[in-house]
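Exercise 7. Given the components listed, write out the predicted structure of the assembled complex. Treat all entries as one system.
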Amino acid sequence: MLSNRIIPCLDVHAGRVVKGVNFVNLIDAGDPVEQAKAYEQQGADELVFLDITASSDERAIMHDVVERTASECFMPLTVGGGLRTLDDIRAMLNSGADKVSLNTAAIKNPKLVRESSEKLGNQCIVVAIDAKRVAPDADGKLRWEVFTHGGRNPAGLDALEWAKEVEKLGAGEILLTSMDADGTKDGYDVELTHAVSEAVRVPVIASGGAGTLDHLVTVIKEGRASAVLAASIFHFGTYSIREAKEAIAAAGLPVRL
Amino acid sequence: MTQPDIAVIDPGMGNLRSVCKAWEHAGAAVRLCDSPEAVGQPDAVVFPGQGGMPHCMEALRATGFDSFLKDWIAADKPFFGICLGLQALFEVSEEGETPALGVFPGQVVRFRLGTEYKIPHMGWNTVTFQGEPTPAEAGLSRSEDQFYFVHSYHVETPEASIVWGETEYGYRFVSAVRRGRCFATQFHPEKSQAKGLQLYRNFVESL
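Answer.
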């Protein structure tokens, strides 16, 4: 049976981890490669690097980080942030990323999703959708809209429609973040995750709001998430990946222990 | 002991870094080869197919790797195929109705599953090894280890003797094949942490 995946996410700024985990025995806790290796040891199923660097000079550093990680970690690595063109995507894959995550670039230029998926295969194209609740429609049906820039700018897209659209364009997976839940530690937006997962055939990674291990279980069970992404509960050592997996297994869900 | 020389076939589809790194980690000296002429006399050939099948077969034909691979495997020289590098060994793929290498009888079909199953089949799943145990499985469980998959198509073959591994996703499908010194996996050992590297190491040690 296919296992549900647990995916820690590291924010990387100018080649250094922001808010990294306080693993003991790390020689350099700010080094993304050291952090990646520690997560691999703990049994993470995949890893996401989110490049929050602003300048293109610093982006060169990200390539070095990805290269070094790919030389030492043998699990799927997704890199997101600042990738705008097919050349950017290709260069990041050539540095050793297995997948890239496109967010604003997909909204501004949907053709990029189609083109990169056709040329490089849909397995390496993840589209990240940041969604926020808006007023229900006239029939009382729940609605979410797509936002960019950390939830500040509405993109003018319905989240479910956009999810279907990016699947059609060739996204192999959707990384779905609830901007309402993100940072609250009150749990994932299960209704959002379920609605998107029902709307598309490709796997959905739930993100935003994890505070307890029950939250992980609930969004897999009731939200139909194929994978759960979390940052702070792992970074701050609240729970280990292993504990998260044991909780999922205890709930009767398939997981790789 | 000198490191075995492994030629990784690169018909120009890119992104072979992690595959090469994994084989190096497993103890091999790796050369990326963009033409059959560049291959020379390696101890083994590795073919990590990528992208879509139509594109992949086109690239193999354009570079002459199609006949090279058929001859190499027919001579029972050591071979390891990964993902599309397994699918390409069969006769035809449903993906774009693409004729493939035809080393083995059978076809490549899309997962025939209801919407309760996500496609691609993406993530970690268990491989149950079949047939006589081979040294390639040393240190692995025959039925409990999980490996990383990402694919929407899988092979179907009438030739039971080549089935090396099976995996369950809605139904059981062939996730690894072997014949003589030819091995191929639908999953990605290079993405499967310690278990995957073990598989590569076993292959390298057999050379």
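Discussion: The longest helix of chain B spans residues 193-205. The helical segments of chain B are 17-25, 36-39, 53-63, 65-74, 84-87, 193-205.
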